[in-house]
């Protein structure tokens, strides 16, 4: 019996310690008055500073959604541009509160870095782009080719795995900074350039003669991209997870930045919970019950964000594809706010 009592006391102390630690990032963010997000050093459609220094893109809008959740104000955020080598260290060290940079969720990253993925805001796949002058129509024709790739990425590992599986030789040209890779590729230092297909499409729009380049059809991988946070801080994890999920839920229910005020009068109980007409959901997160309303009003639902940053209304002009709602044939599926 004594052993059982000691075990119970130990469990209670562990639970108390965990609960005390659970809100560390949440409390720190509240105290300083803004969210610090890690983003890429510049990928069109994901995170890129415009001529006025204003950061835009789907990953920046993820950061804005978190700010709207925490402060009822989507402008209360700052970004830290990070390359692939810096991103995890910056999150581990506390330099940033959340990594909203395009980052692939993998088992290894969830189990060895002290970090954890909080959801997927873009489903992608890795591909390879070449100049049409090379005269190839398939990656299987790239035997002996030089291929530009960033180090310390799943991209580098996937490239090696795919070519080894096909028993094809290639020569990696490893370059750390993304913009330097683009310059190297456009200057002809490598025959091909590999990264996520969305990024290849982004890069192609910036090249002198975009029509000169083609993205080959092969998919080297699955790339579920999304935000990451530190492990052991469940309250902050929940804020990030649900800031994303409610944007998906809003699209499914037809709630947009333009009609959100009218939708707040809806008799639909699901919409009432989402928009805070029925109280309680915000309290469960430790934020205002209007947290979702503020996200949708100030940032938009997922479909609006996609269209503005990556879709037909953007310079990228990408199809929704897998990133369409499950109701439109995609795999985006919001978890219920209830």
What does this structure look like?
Residues 1-22 form the signal peptide. It comes from Bordetella ansorpii. Pfam families: SBP_bac_3 (PF00497). The chain has two domains: 24-123 and 226-328, 3-Layer(aba) Sandwich (D-Maltodextrin-Binding Protein, domain 2); 125-222, Periplasmic binding protein-like II (D-Maltodextrin-Binding Protein, domain 2), CATH 3.40.190.10. It starts with a helix and ends in a 29-residue tail after the last helix. The strands form five sheets. Strands 10-9-11-8-12 form a five-stranded mixed beta sheet, with helices on both faces. Strands 4-1-5 form a three-stranded parallel beta sheet. Strands 2-3 form a two-stranded antiparallel sheet. Helices cover 41% and strands 15% of the residues. A hairpin with a 5-residue loop joins strand 2 (48-49) and strand 3 (55-56). It has 14 helices and 14 strands. It is α/β, with parallel strands linked by helices. Helix 9 (234-252) packs across helix 13 (291-298).
Offer a concise description of the structure:
InterPro entries: Bact_solute-bind_prot3, SBP_3_CS, Solute-binding_3/MltF_N. The chain is α/β, with parallel strands linked by helices and 338 residues long.
The helicity comes to: 40-55%
First-to-last CA distance: 41 Å
Following the backbone from N to C, one meets helices and strands in this order, namely HHEEEHEHEHEEEEHEHEHEEEHHHHHH
CATH topology of the largest domain: D-Maltodextrin-Binding Protein, domain 2
Average pLDDT across residues? 92
CATH class of the largest domain: Alpha Beta
Which architecture name of the largest domain does CATH use?
A: 3-Layer(aba) Sandwich
Low-confidence stretches: 1-22
Question: How would you describe the shape?
Answer: globular
Beta-strand percentage?
15-25%
- Biggest sheet details: 5 strands, mixed
| Order of adjacent strands in the largest pleated sheet | 10-9-11-8-12
Gyration radius from CA atoms, angstroms: 22 Å
How many beta-strand elements? 14
Structural class category? alpha/beta
- Supply the CATH superfamily name of the largest domain: Periplasmic binding protein-like II
For the record, the count of structural domains works out to: 2
Total of helices: 14
